Amino acid sequence: MTTNVLLGVYPDVFTAGSAFAGVPFGCFATTNGSEWNSDCANGLITKTPQQWGDLVRNAYPGYTGPRPRMQTWHGTNDETLKYPNFGEQIKQWTNVHGLSQTPSYTDTPRSGYTRTRYGGTGDQAPVEAISMSGVSHNLPVDAAAAIRFLGLDTTTPTTATPTPTPTGTATPAPTGACRVTYTVSSWSAGLTASVAITNTGTATVDGWTLAFTLPSGQTVTNSWNATITPASGALSARNVSYNGTLAGGATQTFGFQATHTGDAAKPAAFALNGTTCSVA
C-alpha cells in the first residue's frame, strides 16, 4: 500500500517500486478520521483508469518528468485487501504511463501465477502485474523477481550517471533572491518535511546550501535529494550530485524525516548560500 503512495507522491525520487498485496494510490484515503477504509480493503472502490490516473497526477501538480515503473503482486484469495484491488492498480498505473490495459506480454512464471506486462515485454516493463491463484494476503515474496524488476541485479547502471557537481571548501556566493516552501506532516513522535527552494533571481546558482534551524527536540533521521548535517539544531542541507544547478526561476526539492519530542513546528527562517529567503 505504501509503495503505491510513495510512487504517486514522489515520482521525482523513485524510479520503480514493487507492491505486494497493495491497493491503488488514493484508495485507502478517508475523510471520517478512521485509519481503515473498509470499502477499499474489501475491493468495493472502483474507478475508471482516467480517474485513478488523475489521483496520481494531482498529487504532484505540474510534474512533467518520468513516472516510476510499477510491479504489483496479489493473491486471488487475499482476505485482507481483496483481489479487485489488483485490477484497479493495473488500471491506475497503465493510465499514469499512458498505456493500454491490453498486456504486451503474458506468461506463467510458475504454476498458478499469471504475469502480464504493459508497455513492454522485458523484465523492466513500465507496468508488470503478477496474479497468484489461491494465495492469501500473507503471500510469498519473490525477492529475486522484484530485484530484477527494480534493476538491482546488475552492476551496470541502466541510465547514464549524472556528472557530480564540483564541491570544495568554499560555499558558492549568493546569487539573487530565493523562496522556500516548507511542508510538514507530523504524527505522535515523528514528522516528514518536504522542502522546495525556488531561485527567484536571474542568475544560475551552481551548487546550493540551505541553512535553517530545527526547533528544539527535532532530530533528522534520514533525507533525500540533499545531504543534511548535523542532525539537529542549526542545519545545512547541501545539494547532491544530480541537483546542484538551480537556474533563475527554477525549483529544487528535497525532504527528510525526523523525530520530535512534542514540537513539530517549522523552522522560522532559511538562507540559501547566505542569502535570506522569503517563506511561502
Automatic annotation (TrEMBL):
The chain positions of domain CBM2 read 171-280
SMART domains of this UniProt entry?
CBD_II
Which Pfam families did the record assign? Answer: CBM_2
User: What does the entry give for GO biological process?
Assistant: carbohydrate metabolic process
Under InterPro entries, the record lists: AB_hydrolase_fold (IPR029058), CBD2 (IPR001919), CBM2/CBM3_carb-bd_dom_sf (IPR008965), CBM2_carb-bd_dom_sf (IPR012291)
Location of region: Disordered: 155-174
Q: Which GO terms describe its molecular function?
A: hydrolase activity, hydrolyzing O-glycosyl compounds; polysaccharide binding
Q: What is this protein called?
A: Cellulase/cellobiase CelA1
The organism encoding this protein is Catenuloplanes atrovinosus
User: What's the source species' lineage?
Assistant: Bacteria, Bacillati, Actinomycetota, Actinomycetes, Micromonosporales
